[in-house]
């Protein structure tokens, strides 16, 4: 399936909003996973790591 056809199946969610939802899910799930493994990182700390890894501000 092409990217264009996949994008049309996003139920009217803009690409920008979809990207932000993806990012928020990445941070929340990574934080939860690391806490299950015994880490004490908060979601804010995980977000800082994600920002560093992906070089975003």
Helices and strands in order, then pairings?
Layout: H1 3-8, H2 15-36, H3 43-53
Protein described:
The chain has a domain at 15-53. The protein has 57 residues and is mainly alpha-helical. The chain is 68% helix and 0% strand. The protein contains three helices and no strands. The model has no long low-confidence stretch (mean pLDDT 85).
Mean pLDDT, nearest integer? 85
As a percent range, the share of strand residues is: under 5%
Query: How many β-strand runs?
Result: 0
Structural class: mainly alpha
Provide the low-confidence segments as ranges: none
Main beta-sheet strand count, sense and barrel state = none
Task: Specify the helix fraction band.
Answer: 55-70%
Question: Looking at the structure, what is the overall shape?
Answer: elongated
User: What is the overall number of helices?
Assistant: 3
Please compute the radius of gyration using only Cα atoms. Answer: 14 Å
Please trace the helix and strand order, writing H or E for each element: HHH
In whole angstroms, the N-to-C terminal distance is: 33 Å
Could you give a short description of this structure?
The protein has helices spanning 3-8, 15-36, 43-53.
Keywords:
68% helix; single chain; mainly alpha; 3 helices; elongated; 57 residues
């Amino acid at each position: 399936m092409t990217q264009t056809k996949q994008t049309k199946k996003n139920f009217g969610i803009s690409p920008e909003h979809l990207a932000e939802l993806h990012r928020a899910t990445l941070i929340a799930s990574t934080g939860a996973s690391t806490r299950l493994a015994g880490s004490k990182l908060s979601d804010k700390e995980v977000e800082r790591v994600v920002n560093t890894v992906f070089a975003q501000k």
